[in-house]
Amino acid sequence: MLRVKSPQDFWAGVLFICFGALALYLGQSYAFGTVTRMGPGFLPTVLAWIVVGLGAIIVVRGMAVDGTAIARGQLRPQFFILLAIVLFGLLIERVGLAPTIFIVTLVASMASTEIRWKEAVALGVGAAIFSVLLFIKLLGQAMPAWAWSF
Amino acid sequence: MDMFANLATGFGAAITPANLLFCLIGCLLGTLIGVLPGIGPIATIAMLLPITFGLDPLSSLIMLAGIYYGAQYGGSTTAILVNLPGETSSVITCIDGYQMARRGRAGAALTIAALGSFFAGCVGTLVIAAFAPVLAGFAEKFRSPEYFSLMLFGLVAAVVLAHGSVIKAVAMVILGLLFGLVGTDTQAGVTRFTFGVSELYDGIDFVPLAMGLFGFAEMMGNLEKRAEDRSQTQKIESLWPTREEAKLAVPAALRGTIIGSFLGILPGGGAVLASFASYTLEKKISKSRAMFGKGAVEGVAGPESANNAGAQTSFIPLLTLGIPSTPVMAVMVGAMMIQGIAPGTALLTERPTLFWGMIASMWVGNLMLVIINLPLIGLWVALLKVPYRLLFPCILILCCVGAYAVSSSTFLVIMMAGIALLGYTFNKLGCECAPFLLGFVLGPLMEENLRRSMVLSFGSPSIFVERPISLVLLLMSAALIAIIVLPSFRRTREDAFQE
Fold it and tell me: ipTM, 2 decimals?
C-alpha cells in the first residue's frame, strides 16, 4: 500500500504540480517561438514543466521518505485576518479611511482568542485617528477621511 | 582624492535637517517593526515602504536606508532577547547572543552588536565608495549573457542559503520566476496570466506580494501560537560590556568586518555567508572554544559585524549592475523602482548626486542607529511586553493602507488577502518564501536577458560558456551546487538551521 510518509512534502508537491499545470493550461495560447526568437510562451512553458517535474519528485519523496507532519492550523486567525483585509478593500472607497480603519481593527482583533472588547474598541478609535493624521494629513495620501458612496 | 570629493557631494545632498529627520523616523520605525517577534527585515521594509511614497527620491532613499538598518538591527535585537532570528543572517547571532541574554548580559550583547555593526557599516560605506565606481566600469562589459549568468548565480545562492529542503527551495525559486512573468510581455506585447484584470498588466505589484507573503503569513502563524510560546523577555542589567568582554569583542568585530566586506560583494546572500564564516573563524581561533554556544562574546561581535559589513557591501552589485542579489535587496529594488530610480550603472553616470547621496545616507542610517538605539534598548524591550493582540491589528492596518496607497486600487488589497493565504500555506508546507521573492523580482529580467542572449548567439546556448565573465559566474554557481551536495556542508547547514 502506498502511504504518505511526509505530509508536508506530499502536499507541497501537489501544490507545485497544480501551479505548474495551471500555468501550462493558461499559457497554451501564448506563442512558443523558437530558441532563437523566443515567444511569450517559451519561458512560462519551460518553467511550468520544471515546476510540475519538481512537484512530482517532491510528491514521490513525500511518499517514500519519512518527514514532518503539517502543523495543525486554526481557522479563527486566518478567517478574521483575511476578512479584515478584504473588508478594507471593500470599504475604503465607500466610507473613507476613518470608519474603515475602525471596523477593520475590530474585525482583525477578533482573530486573537485573547480579545478584550473594550480594549479593541479603544484601539480602533485610536488607530482611526492616528491613520487619518499620519496618512492623510502628514503624508498626503489621496484617500478621503470620510465618505458615503454605495 | 576623487572618492572623498564624491562622498562630500553625497553628504552635502544627504545631510539637510529634513533628510536627517526622515532618516531618524525611518530608523525608529524600522527598529520598531523589526523588533516585533516574527517580523523579519523583509516584512518590515515591505510594510514601511508606503510611508516613503510621498517623498522626493533622495529623501525617500534616505528614509529607506534608515528603515533598512533599523530593520536589520531590530532583527538582531529579537535574536538576542527572545532567540528569534528575523532572517537567516541573524541565525548565528541567536546562538551566543541568546545565551548571553540568559546570563543577564543582554544589554552588553545588544551594545556590542550595535557598536560592531556601526563600525562595520562605516567600513562598508568606504568600501562601496572606493569600489562601486571601479565595478561600475567593469559592469559596462556586462551584456545579456553575463547578466543572465549573474542572476542564475544569485538564485542558486538563494537556494543554498534557504532553510530546509533544497528541492523545495528550487521549486519555490522557479515558481517565483513564473509569478514574475505575469503581466505584459514587453517584447511581444501579449498579456500573460492576467485574467483580463488591468491591475495585473504591469505584473503582480511587489508591495502587496511582499506584505502578503511575509507580513500576513507570519502574522497568521503567530496568532496560532499560544501567548506564552511567543516571547519571554529578560531583564536588562547593564548596557555596557565589561572590560574583558570589550577586549574579546573588538578584535572579533575587526575580523568580522573584513570578512563581511569581502563576502558581501559576492552576489547572492553575501551577508549570510559572512556571518557563518565569521562565526566559524572566531570559534577556530578562540582560546576558550568551549564558551561558544554558551554565550561567547566573540560569537556575537564577529558575526554581527560581518553581517552588517556584508549587508552594506551587498549594495555594490545592486548599485553597479542593478541586480538584487538577496531577497532583502529585492525589496530595496522594489522601493527604488516605485521612486522611478532604476539602480544600475546609469545611476552613477547620470544621477551622481543621487548615487552618492544614497551612499552617504547609508552611513547616516548607520549612525542614527547607534545614536537612537543605544538609549532606546530599554524601550524595545518594553515593546516586546506589549500584548500581541494590540500589535497585530496595527500592523494589519499599516499593510492594508500600504497596499492600497501603491495605486489607489482596491484590487491590490483583495489580491493581498489571497497572497497572504498562499504565504500561510507555503509556511505550513515547509516552503520558504524568500527564494520565491527573489525569483519573482528576477523573473522578467532573466527572461529579457535570456531572449537577448539567444538572439545574439542565434539560438546556441554555448554563448554562456564562451564569454569569460559569464563562464566564471556559471562555474561559481556550479561550485555552490557542488558544495550543497557535499555531505560535510550539508551537515553544517542542517546544524546551522536547527532552531
Answer: 0.92
